[in-house]
Write a structure and sequence with these properties.
By secondary structure, this protein is an alpha/beta fold. The protein is built from six helices and seven strands, in the order ββββαααβββααα. It is elongated. Bound molecules: zinc ion.
Amino acid sequence: MSKKIISYSNGLGDVVFEKRPQNRSISVSVSARGVVKVTLPGYVSYLEAQQFLRTVEKKIMATKKEMADKYPAATLPTKAQLQALSRRAHDILPARTRALYELLTGKVVIRNKLGITIKDPFRYNRVAIKDNKTNWGSCSTIRNLNLNMHLVELPADLMDFVIVHELCHLVYSNHGARFHALVNTATDGREKELSKKLQGYKLL
Ligand SMILES: [Zn+2]
């Protein structure tokens, strides 16, 4: 994934251009802080993306203004606050993930279709902590977990719920019935309740 930041003097400010080979079209987004981000498929050049941005500039400027009205700078965390939060997340999340992994490993037995017990079903490789705007957590096919640093701002039961959800994805990667049954067992029957509660918290 390659990235380029271009400064515009016309009010757009620093625009982040990011190549995403898997994308099929150019998309432009504006964050709550008013940062404009352009994601482009691998086959589109940065120059073409800049030309595209020019065609939607008026709309983007209007969105930037909307964001500034909706999220005044005072309500957004400062860079120093985000750094402190990141440090807190690095202190808490890997250790908590380990503890929940041990808890699940001791509590849940997973069998395959033949009824054979799967060894160490919740094992994971690495915990990466990110300031992600779109999800609380995710996991990769190589058993790495990505956790959002803002998880440490949630009530403890919701932070645990997100980590447990991701650990359960190491057993079932989709959101099928078996996955939900596992999360429900892992949370002592609280999956629906916790999931509903989590929806009350928005990422900014
Ligand atoms: Zn999921």
